[in-house]
Amino acid sequence: MANEKHTVGLSVNLQISGGRLPSIVAQNVQGISVRYPVWDSVKNEAELVRWRGNAKVSNDYQFAFEVLFKDANLSKPMNVLAGLDAFHAKAKTFIKDIHARCVELGL
After folding, report:
1. Which of 14, 71, 88, 105 shows a CA-CA span of 20 to 30 A to 22?
2. To the nearest 10°, the Cα dihedral for 69, 40, 60, 32?
3. Is position 5 within any domain?
4. Where do runs of H (alpha helix) occur along the chain?
């Protein structure tokens, strides 16, 4: 977002907000690691399971994703819909206050 004097840059990122893991049956496995997936936006992937040996994964993974605003000025990433709702509410309040002030000044 920008105008002549100000630029506001917000990056958008993806986060996995929930999911369901499939069944894993392991035989002769030297090591297996099932991780809560964290989305890597550079690689465009999330690591789910890592193993050495024979393993059978059945059923499907299911995930819920959340789109986030991410910026150094934010204390933590913010859900895009919640952020836009908050911005909209502030903008409405600002417009209402400006309108009231204009009426007060007879403009």
Report:
1. 14
2. -140
3. no
4. 80-105
Q: How many other C-beta atoms lie within 10 A of the C-beta of residue 22?
A: 13
pLDDT band at 2 (very low <50, low <70, confident <90, very high): very low
Q: What's the CA gap between 24 and 56, in Å, rounded?
A: 6
Domain count, the chain: 1
**Whole-structure pTM value:** 0.47
Q: For residues 50 and 80, what is the distance between their CA atoms, to the nearest angstrom?
A: 32
In a domain, 85, yes or no: no
pLDDT tens string 10-63:
676 767 777 777 777 777 778 777 777 777 878 888 887 787 888 777 777 777
DSSP 45: B
Say how far apart CA 95 and CA 67 lie, in whole Å. Answer: 28
